[in-house]
């Protein structure tokens, strides 16, 4: 093993065992990193940092720092015992490298915590309906009519739907335009506080809803203002989400 404080460290690069040591160190680090990552992801599901801060911090320190550090100790002990036929007393590992290893494990845990907090903030800003700024969503949709490409403000859109493998949108004035993007892509670019995915074929605008009522099998029938086509049907699976959204 490479010892800290070795004055002639460059000589080590001329010995074949040095590269074996490096390979073993990388293998051990990869195993411990993988275990730490999976354990941290599991803890994210069990103990929320915001709702159970103290408990999560204690569990993270015990499992993420103490147990992983102990794993480093065991890995290194076995490596010395089986591969080099040495003990810790014959080296300076406990004095020099163990504190460094524990510090590194702690820093990895801190990195995961910072990453989680940053990711959580971005996720909340982009996924919570109605909480994002207008700049986060498209303000226009490009519609096709004949040979023309027309920029239609989303405020004028009444419904977006799919029929015969083609996608269309209808404005509040009743104009119909064909659109190129899929409904999934269009919906992801719209403000979820103002538009609702009624079913796989239809997206409706909140302000264009004239009336809605429950029908058979837990479905909901929605009539849009100025819409002469058949009412939009909300599936049973989406009915609860629709009632919460439309309030």
Summarize, please.
The chain is α+β, with helices and mostly antiparallel strands and 247 residues long. Helix content is 47%, strand content 21%. It is built from five helices and ten strands.
List keywords for this structure.
five-stranded antiparallel β-sheet, 2 domains, OB fold (Dihydrolipoamide Acetyltransferase, E2P), single chain, three-stranded antiparallel β-sheet, alpha+beta, 10 strands, about 250 residues
Describe the structure.
It is built from five helices and ten strands, in the order αααβββββαβββββα. The chain has two domains: 9-127, no CATH class; 134-246, LytTr DNA-binding domain (OB fold (Dihydrolipoamide Acetyltransferase, E2P)), CATH 2.40.50. It has helices at 16-46, 53-84, 93-127, 183-188, 236-246; strands at residues 140-145, 148-153, 157-163, 166-171, 176-179, 195-199, 202-205, 209-214, 220-224, 232-234. α1 (16-46) runs antiparallel to α2. The strands form three sheets. It has a five-stranded antiparallel beta sheet with strand order 5-4-3-7-6. It has a three-stranded antiparallel beta sheet with strand order 8-9-10. The chain is an alpha+beta fold and 247 residues long.
């Amino acid at each position: 093993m490479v010892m800290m404080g070795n004055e002639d460290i460059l000589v080590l690069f001329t010995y074949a065992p040095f590269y074996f040591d490096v390979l073993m160190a990388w293998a051990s680090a990869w195993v411990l990193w993988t275990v730490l990552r999976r354990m941290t992801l599991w803890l994210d599901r069990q103990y929320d940092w915001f709702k159970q801060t103290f408990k999560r911090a204690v569990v993270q320190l015990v499992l993420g720092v103490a147990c992983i550090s102990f794993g480093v100790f065991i890995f290194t002990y076995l490596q010395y015992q089986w591969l080099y036929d040495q003990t810790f007393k014959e080296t300076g590992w406990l004095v020099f490298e163990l504190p460094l290893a524990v510090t590194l494990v702690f820093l990895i845990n801190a990195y995961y915590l910072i990453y989680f907090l940053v990711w959580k903030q971005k996720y909340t800003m982009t996924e919570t309906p109605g909480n994002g700024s207008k700049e986060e969503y498209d303000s226009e949709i490009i519609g096709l009519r004949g040979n023309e490409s027309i920029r239609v403000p989303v405020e004028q859109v009444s419904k977006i739907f799919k029929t015969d493998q083609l996608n269309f949108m209808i404005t509040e004035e009743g104009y119909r335009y064909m659109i190129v993007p899929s409904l999934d892509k269009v919906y992801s670019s719209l403000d979820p506080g103002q538009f609702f995915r009624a079913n796989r074929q239809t997206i409706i605008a909140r302000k264009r809803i004239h009336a809605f009522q429950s029908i058979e099998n837990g479905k909901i029938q929605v009539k849009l203002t100025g819409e002469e086509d058949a009412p939009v049907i909300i599936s049973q699976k989406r009915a609860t989400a629709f009632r919460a959204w439309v309030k």
